[in-house]
Design brief:
The complex is a heterotrimer of chains A (303), B (621) and C (319). Chain B is of the alpha+beta class and 621 residues long. Helices cover 26% and strands 20% of the residues of chain B. In chain B, helix 16 runs antiparallel to helix 17. The longest helix of chain C has 39 residues. Classes of the chains: A mainly alpha (303), B alpha+beta (621), C mainly alpha (319). At the B-C interface, helix 1, helix 7 and helix 14 of B face helix 2, helix 7, helix 8 and helix 11 of C.
Chain lengths: 303, 621, 319
C-alpha cells in the first residue's frame, strides 16, 4: 500500500520526504490513477463537469431560458442534440447550465457545512466538558431530522432561492462533519506536538488553528468530496419537489418535475437530466472513496 | 373493479415470494374492447341565457369530431341571446316541468373511480369559490332548485333539480317554483318551501362571504313561501342570466332546521361533521389526500336515481401523475371539467387510450393571464402596464400550452356576441403578429418606447408569482423570457402552492403574477364583474378606472341588446388599448377525460354544471 | 455498563427538548398567518372581516405570546394530544394513526428488500475480490448510491404504464385485510426507496467481510479444512453482520425522509405524503406533529442501536 501525506504547499500528495526525491504532482496523479482506477475515472468526470460548468456559455448552443413555441418537445436533431422541453427550450443547453447550479449549490453548501462542522467539531473536541456536551446535544438534535425533511422545512420557511437552498443544505451537513471531526480532534489533542505546544503556553486558538487544523485537512477533503454527491441529490430532490431553486434557473432536478407527462412523445425530457445527476454523483462517489482510501483509511465506513 | 390478468405487481410478488417464474395473479382479464367512440369533442362555452322558456331556446348542437385532432369550436355564435331582456314571448305566463329523467333500458349501476385534483378546502358551498376544492365534493350530496340537465349534450337545458317545475310571470320578474312532496333531507326531515326561502336568503347575505352563490344578488328582490311546497322569487328586472346562475352547482339548498336561522348560533357548515344534504349520494368516508367515498342515497326523492351504487373520488394533486393514472386506468374519469391537464397532455392521453375513452376539450371556460400589481412600483405607471400588455406574444402561449387550440388572449373572449371576432382582435396592437408568426415589430418598438418614456429603457428586476396549478409556473417562465428578450425586464418566477400564493396576493406581497379565472356563465355581467371591477376575483390591487365602472353600470341596466353590446365593446377596446390590470394571454379550455365504460355522460357547458352525477352509470363494454 | 446506559438515557432528554425547540422555532418563522390562510380559502377569494380573523386567531391560539404557545404545545404533547390540524380542524392523531403504519410498513419493506439483495451481493463481491464479478457488483452498488430515488421512481412508473398499462389500485388496501393488494401497492415504492440502501449495505457488507477474512479465526477455520461455504456463512457472515445491522439502523432516518418523495410520486397514503402536503398547505400543527414524530423515532432508534451496540460489543464505550 502506497503511503501518501498531505502537507501544505503545492506537493499535495507526496511520499515522506527524505526517503526519495519528492515526486511531482503529475507522478502522484499517475500513481493515484494506477492504484485507484475507478477513483481516477471519477476524478476525470468531475473535472470534465467543472470545465463544462465554467465554460457553459461557450459549450451550450442555445440560451437555456429562451422558450420557442416551434420547438415544443422537439425531437433530438442536429439543431437540438437532446431535443426540446415542454416550453421549447434546448434540453442540452439546460443540462450544461444545470451543471453550474448543481456544482455551485453543491460545492458552496458543502464548504459551508463541512467548515462549520470542522469548527464545531474542533472546538468541541478540544475543550471537551460542558462545551462538548452542549455542542454534541445540539448536533444530536439536528441529526434527528433526516436531511431531506430538515431541508424541506427550511425551504418552506424561507422560500425558493439559490441562497436559501445553500443555507438549507449547509445546515444539513454540519452535524455529520462535526461528529467525525470531533472524534479525530479527540485523538489529535493527545499527540505530543499538541501537548508540547500547550506546555510552551500557546493560546487555545493558536493550538487549534496552527497545530490541530492542518492535521484534519485530509479528513476535511474526504468529508467534502463524499458529501458533495449527496448535496447534488438533495438539491435535485428539492427542485423536483418545487421548493428548490426557482424554475426559470435551469437545474437538473427541476427539469425532472413533471417528466412523467410526456414520456411517450418525448422520452428525452425524463431521461437525460436523471442520467446527468446519476453520472455526476457516481463520479464524485468514486473519487471520494478513492481519496478516503488514500488519505484517511480510518474513515472507512464512516459515510 | 379492474383486475388485470398480467399485473406486474403480482408478477413481481410471485417472483419474490415463490422465487419461481411468472406467477400469475388473481382475476379475469378485463381488457376493454376498443370502441369507435368519438374521440375529441369540442364543447361550447356556457351560454348566457336559458330563457325562462328554455324548452323554446334553440342552442347550437354540439359538434362531435370523430377524428383525433382537436378542431376549433364555433364556441358561441356571434349573436346569441343577450341577457338583460327576456324574449317577448317569455314575458307571458310560461310553465315548465322538469325532472324528466326516465330510467334508461339496460344495465345500470356500478362504482366508478374518479380523479379530483385537490383536497376539499371546506364544505360550505355558500362560501365556496372554487370548483375543485369545495364545489365538486359538495355536489353529490346536495340539490339546487334547478340544474343543467346532464343527460343531453344540450348546453342550455335547464331542468328542475329539487323543483319539479316552475312558472314565470309578471313580465319575467316572478318565478314560482314547485317542490315535490316526497323530498327528504338525509336525516328524514321533509324539504319544504321554508328551506328554499332560507337558502336563497342565505345566498343573498352580505355580512358573510358569498364568492359565487352571491352572484344572484343583483337580480333577486325577494323570496317568499306561498305554500308548503311553493316558493316565489321576485326579480328587480327581467333577466334570464338569473336562471343561468341559479342552475350552476354553487347554488345549493340548505336544511333550515339543521343549519339554524340565527347567524349567531348557526352551525359551521365548513365542517365535515355538519354535512347534511338531500342529494343522490352520501359520503361514507373521507381520507385527506386520498379519497372521498360515496354511496347511493337509497331514499333519494327522484325515483330510480342515482344509477350508480357509489363513487370514489381519488385525490391526485401531483399534476405529473394524472396522465399516468388515466393511462393505467387507476381512475376512469375527471370529477368535473378541470383535470389539471393542458391540451397537449390531453392529446397525448387521447392517443394513448386508442378510443377506450374520450378526452374533451371544453372551452373557452377560463382565461390565463399575467396579473399586474398596479399598486407597486414600477407598475403604478400606466405606461409600464401598457408596455406589458403590448409585449406578451399570445400566439406563443397558445402554441406551447394549447397546441394551437386555445383562443387569442383578448380582454374579452373573442367571437362572443358582446366581444369582437377573432379576426378583429388579431389586428389589434398587442395581439397581432407578423405573417411568419413572429411578434409584431411595431408592438415591440412601441413597448420599448413606452418603457423608455417611463424611465426604464434598461428594464428592471421583478418577480412573477405563480401558483403550482394548471401549468402556471411554466406560463410564467414563458412570460419572463419574452419580457427579458424584448424589454430587458429580468423576472424571477416564484412558484407557490395555491394557498401560500393567495396569501401573498392578498397581502400585496407580489409584483407580477400568473394565474387564471374560471367563467361561471358566459355573460358580460359575470365577465366584467369577475375579472375587471375592483372586487373581481383576481383583481388583487383593486385597479378600477372610472371608465370601466361607468360602462359596466350602464350595460347592467341597458335593456336594448344592441346598445348593451356597444357598451361592452367599448369596454373591451378600452382594456385592449388603454389600461388593464391583467394581460390575458389565452382563453383556454379545460380537458376532462371519461372512459367509455361510463354511460350517459354528456360534457358540461360550464365548470359548475353536471357535477352531482345522478345520471351516470357503469357498464363493461 | 449500567452507568453507560443511564448516561445515554439522561442525555436523550435534553436532546429531545432541543428537537422540540427547533421544530417549534422553524414552524413559527413561516410567513403567513394560519388563521388568515384558513379564512381566505384554497382559492383565495373568500371574504372575511378583521373580527373573524381575530376570533380565529384566538381560537387557534396564535394570538398568544410565543413562549406560552410553546409551553402549551409541549404540555399537550405530553398528554398525548397532538392537537387539531390548523387547516382542516380534524384531530392530528387520527391522520397520524392512519398514515404512520403505512410509512413504517413501506420503510421496513424497503429495508428488508435492500438487505435481501445487498448481503449476497456484498458477499459475492468480497469472496471474489478483484474479480470481474467484484467490479460489477461494486459498480452496481456505487451506481445505486448515485441514482436519485425520485428518478428511479419516475422510471418505474413510466415502465409500468408504457409496457403494462398498469399501476397498483389507488384505494389503499390494509396489510391485514388484503395483503396481496397491499404488497402490490407497496412493492414498487419500496424498490425505489430502498435502492440506495441496497447499494450502501452491499458496500458495507463487502468491506466488513474483507476485514473478517483477515482475522485469525477464519484462517484457522480454513486451515482446518472446513468447507468454504461453511466458513463464509457460519463464521465470516455472522461476524460481519454487526456493522451491517448498525448501518441499517442508522439508515432508517434517511429512508423515512425518502418516503416524502416516493409517497408523493406513487400516491401512497403515508406520513411522507401527509408531510409534503401539509408543508404546501402551511398546516403548522400538522407539520410540527409529523416532524416531531419522525425526529423522535430517529432519536429513539439511534438510542436503541447505540445501547445494543454497546451491549453486543463491550469494546464500544460512550466517549
Amino acid at each position: 500500500m502506497a503511503v501518501y501525506r498531505l502537507d501544505q504547499g503545492e506537493d499535495a500528495l507526496s511520499l515522506p520526504s527524505g526517503v526519495r526525491p519528492k515526486p511531482t504532482v503529475w507522478q502522484n496523479l499517475v500513481k493515484f490513477a494506477k492504484d485507484k482506477p475507478l477513483g481516477a475515472v471519477g476524478g476525470a468526470i468531475a473535472i470534465l463537469l467543472i470545465i463544462v460548468a465554467i465554460f457553459a456559455p461557450l459549450i451550450a448552443p442555445h440560451n437555456p431560458r429562451i422558450t420557442n413555441h416551434e420547438a415544443v418537445l422537439a425531437e433530438p436533431s442536429s439543431e437540438m442534440f437532446l431535443g426540446g422541453d415542454q416550453l421549447g427550450r434546448d434540453v442540452f443547453s439546460r443540462l450544461v447550465y444545470g451543471a453550474q447550479i448543481s456544482l455551485l449549490v453543491g460545492i458552496v453548501s458543502v464548504l459551508f457545512g463541512v467548515t462549520i462542522g470542522l469548527a464545531v467539531g474542533l472546538v468541541s473536541g478540544y475543550f471537551g466538558g460542558i462545551v462538548d456536551l452542549g455542542a454534541q446535544r445540539v448536533m444530536d438534535a439536528v441529526m434527528a431530522f433526516p436531511a431531506l425533511i430538515l431541508a424541506l422545512s427550511i425551504m418552506a420557511v424561507m422560500g425558493a432561492s439559490i441562497i436559501n437552498v445553500i443555507i438549507a443544505l449547509s445546515v444539513v451537513f454540519v452535524p455529520g462533519a462535526a461528529r467525525t471531526i470531533r472524534s479525530q480532534a479527540l485523538s489529535i489533542k493527545e499527540m505530543d506536538y499538541v501537548l508540547a505546544a500547550r506546555a510552551i503556553g500557546a493560546s487555545d486558538a493558536r493550538i487549534m488553528i496552527r497545530h490541530m487544523a492542518p492535521n484534519l485537512v485530509a479528513t476535511y477533503i474526504v468529508l467534502a468530496t463524499i458529501s458533495l454527491g449527496w448535496a447534488i441529490v438533495v438539491e435535485a430532490s428539492l427542485s423536483f419537489l418545487g421548493v428548490g431553486v426557482p424554475p426559470s434557473v435551469p437545474t437538473w432536478g427541476g427539469m425532472l418535475t413533471g417528466a412523467t407527462k410526456y414520456v411517450e412523445t418525448a422520452w428525452w425530457v425524463a431521461v437525460f437530466p436523471g442520467l446527468a445527476i446519476a453520472v455526476v454523483v457516481f463520479a464524485w462517489n468514486l473519487l471520494g472513496d478513492a481519496l478516503r482510501d488514500v488519505l484517511d483509511p480510518k474513515l472507512r465506513g464512516a459515510s | 373493479m379492474i383486475i388485470r390478468f398480467w399485473n406486474p405487481g403480482a408478477l413481481l410478488l410471485g417472483l419474490l415470494v415463490a422465487g419461481l417464474l411468472l406467477a400469475v395473479a388473481c382475476g379475469a382479464s378485463a381488457t376493454a374492447t376498443p370502441q369507435p367512440a368519438p374521440v375529441a369533442t369540442q364543447v361550447p362555452a356556457p351560454q348566457p341565457t336559458a330563457a325562462p322558456t328554455q324548452a323554446a331556446t334553440q342552442a347550437p348542437a354540439v359538434p362531435t369530431a370523430t377524428s383525433a385532432p382537436v378542431t376549433r369550436a364555433p364556441t358561441a355564435p356571434a349573436v346569441s341571446a343577450p341577457t338583460a331582456t327576456p324574449a317577448p314571448e317569455a314575458a307571458s305566463e310560461a310553465s315548465t316541468t322538469a325532472q324528466a329523467q326516465a330510467k334508461p333500458d339496460g344495465i345500470y349501476g356500478g362504482v366508478i373511480d374518479m380523479h379530483v385534483a385537490g383536497n376539499v378546502a371546506h364544505w360550505n358551498i355558500m362560501e365556496c369559490g372554487s370548483g375543485g376544492t369545495c364545489m365538486s365534493p359538495t355536489s353529490p350530496f346536495s340539490n339546487g332548485l334547478v340544474h343543467y340537465n346532464g343527460e343531453t349534450p344540450e348546453p342550455l337545458d335547464i331542468r328542475g333539480d329539487l323543483a319539479t317545475g316552475w312558472t314565470v310571470s309578471e313580465g319575467g320578474t316572478r318565478y314560482i317554483f314547485e317542490l315535490p312532496e316526497n323530498a327528504r333531507w338525509h336525516d328524514g326531515t321533509p324539504i319544504t318551501s321554508d328551506d328554499v326561502v332560507f337558502s336563497i336568503n342565505e345566498m343573498l347575505r352580505t355580512d358573510v362571504p358569498r364568492p359565487r352563490s352571491g352572484q344572484i344578488r343583483p337580480y333577486v328582490k325577494g323570496v317568499e313561501a306561498i305554500g308548503p311546497y311553493q316558493a316565489q322569487i321576485d326579480l328587480h328586472f327581467p333577466s334570464s342570466a338569473f336562471l343561468a346562475f341559479l342552475a350552476t352547482d354553487f347554488m345549493k339548498m340548505w336544511p333550515m332546521h339543521w343549519v339554524g336561522t340565527d347567524p349567531e348560533t348557526q352551525r359551521n357548515m365548513r365542517l365535515e361533521e355538519n354535512i347534511l344534504g338531500s342529494g343522490p349520494f352520501r359520503m361514507v368516508e373521507h381520507e385527506k389526500d386520498v379519497v372521498y367515498r360515496w354511496e347511493k342515497n337509497q331514499d333519494y326523492f327522484k325515483d330510480g336515481l342515482p344509477y350508480l351504487d357509489g363513487m370514489n373520488y381519488f385525490i391526485i394533486n401531483d399534476s405529473s401523475r394524472i396522465l399516468a393514472a388515466y393511462k393505467a386506468e387507476q381512475v376512469l374519469m375527471t370529477v368535473y371539467l378541470n383535470s389539471n391537464m393542458n391540451v397537449r397532455e390531453g392529446q397525448e392521453l387521447q392517443d394513448d387510450r386508442e378510443g377506450k375513452g374520450r378526452v374533451f376539450f371544453a372551452g373557452p371556460t377560463l382565461w390565463h393571464g399575467m396579473l399586474i400589481n398596479t399598486e407597486k412600483e414600477p407598475f403604478t405607471d400606466p405606461k409600464v402596464r401598457r408596455a406589458l400588455n403590448l409585449i406578451l406574444h399570445r400566439q406563443a402561449f397558445d402554441q406551447i400550452f394549447g397546441a394551437g387550440e386555445y383562443q387569442i388572449g383578448s380582454p374579452l373572449p373573442p367571437d362572443q356576441w358582446f366581444s369582437r371576432t377573432t379576426e378583429e382582435w388579431l389586428q389589434t396592437p398587442g395581439l397581432r403578429e407578423t405573417d411568419n408568426g413572429e411578434k409584431h415589430p411595431e408592438d415591440i418598438a412601441e413597448a420599448q418606447r413606452l418603457m423608455a418614456e417611463a424611465g426604464y429603457e434598461d428594464g428592471f428586476e421583478t418577480t412573477i408569482l405563480a401558483a403550482n396549478f394548471l401549468s402556471f409556473p411554466d406560463m410564467a417562465q414563458v412570460a419572463a423570457d419574452q419580457m427579458e428578450r424584448w424589454l430587458n425586464i429580468r423576472a424571477v418566477v416564484q412558484p407557490e402552492e395555491p394557498a401560500a400564493g393567495y396569501v401573498r396576493y392578498e397581502s400585496s406581497d407580489w409584483s407580477l403574477g400568473f394565474h387564471g379565472n374560471g367563467i361561471l356563465v358566459m355573460d358580460p355581467d359575470q365577465l366584467v364583474a369577475g375579472s375587471y371591477l375592483s372586487a373581481a376575483t383576481r383583481n388583487y390591487s383593486g385597479w378600477e378606472p372610472a371608465k370601466i365602472r361607468e360602462l359596466y353600470d350602464a350595460q347592467l341596466i341597458e335593456t336594448d341588446t344592441e346598445k348593451r353590446r356597444q357598451l361592452v365593446l367599448e369596454l373591451g377596446d378600452y382594456l385592449a388599448a388603454e389600461d388593464t390590470h391583467v394581460v390575458i394571454t389565452t382563453w383556454a379550455m379545460l380537458v376532462p377525460y371519461v372512459d367509455n365504460r361510463i354511460k350517459n355522460y354528456n360534457i358540461a357547458s360550464g365548470f359548475a354544471n353536471h357535477t352531482n352525477k345522478e345520471h351516470l352509470w357503469y357498464e363493461d363494454n | 455498563m449500567n452507568l453507560y446506559v443511564v448516561k445515554r438515557l439522561l442525555l436523550f432528554v435534553p436532546t429531545l427538548l432541543l428537537v422540540t425547540i427547533i421544530v417549534f422555532a422553524l414552524m413559527r418563522l413561516i410567513p403567513g398567518d394560519p388563521a388568515y390562510l384558513r379564512l381566505i380559502g384554497a382559492d383565495g377569494d373568500a371574504e372575511f372581516t378583521q373580527e373573524q380573523l381575530e376570533d380565529l386567531q384566538a381560537q387557534l391560539g396564535t394570538d398568544k405570546p410565543l413562549v406560552q404557545q410553546y409551553g402549551l404545545w409541549i404540555w399537550d404533547m405530553l398528554r398525548g394530544d397532538l392537537g387539531l390540524s390548523m387547516i382542516h380542524d380534524t384531530p392530528i392523531v387520527d391522520d397520524i394513526k392512519d398514515r404512520l403504519p403505512v410509512t413504517i410498513e413501506l420503510t421496513i419493506l424497503s429495508l428488508a428488500l435492500a438487505t435481501l439483495i445487498a448481503v449476497p451481493l456484498g458477499v459475492i463481491s468480497a469472496v471474489m475480490q478483484d474479480s470481474p464479478a467484484d467490479y460489477a457488483s461494486r459498480i452496481i452498488a456505487i451506481a445505486g448510491v448515485a441514482m436519485p430515488n425520485f428518478w428511479l421512481a419516475i422510471l418505474i412508473i413510466i415502465f409500468l404504464v408504457n409496457f403494462f398499462g398498469w399501476l397498483a389500485p389507488l384505494r389503499y388496501a390494509d396489510l391485514w385485510k388484503d395483503p396481496l393488494t397491499n404488497l402490490q401497492q407497496l412493492i414498487f415504492p419500496a424498490i425505489a426507496l430502498g435502492f440506495y440502501n441496497m447499494a450502501l449495505i452491499a458496500r458495507v457488507t463487502r468491506s466488513a467481510m474483507l476485514e473478517v477474512f483477515r482475522e485469525d479465526y477464519i484462517r484457522t477455520a480454513r486451515s482446518k479444512g472446513l468447507n468454504e461455504r461453511v466458513v463464509i456463512v457460519r463464521h465470516a457472515l455472522k461476524n460481519a453482520s454487526l456493522p451491517v445491522l448498525t448501518i441499517s439502523g442508522w439508515q432508517i432516518g434517511r429512508l423515512l425522509a425518502g418516503t416524502v418523495v416516493i409517497e408523493k410520486i406513487f400516491l401512497v397514503p403515508g406520513v411522507g405524503r401527509l408531510l409534503i402536503d401539509s408543508i404546501f398547505a402551511r398546516d403548522f400543527t400538522m407539520i410540527q406533529a409529523i416532524v416531531m414524530i419522525v425526529a423522535t423515532m430517529v432519536l429513539l432508534l439511534n438510542l436503541i442501536v447505540d445501547l445494543m451496540y454497546g451491549w453486543i460489543d463491550p469494546r464500544i464505550r460512550y466517549a
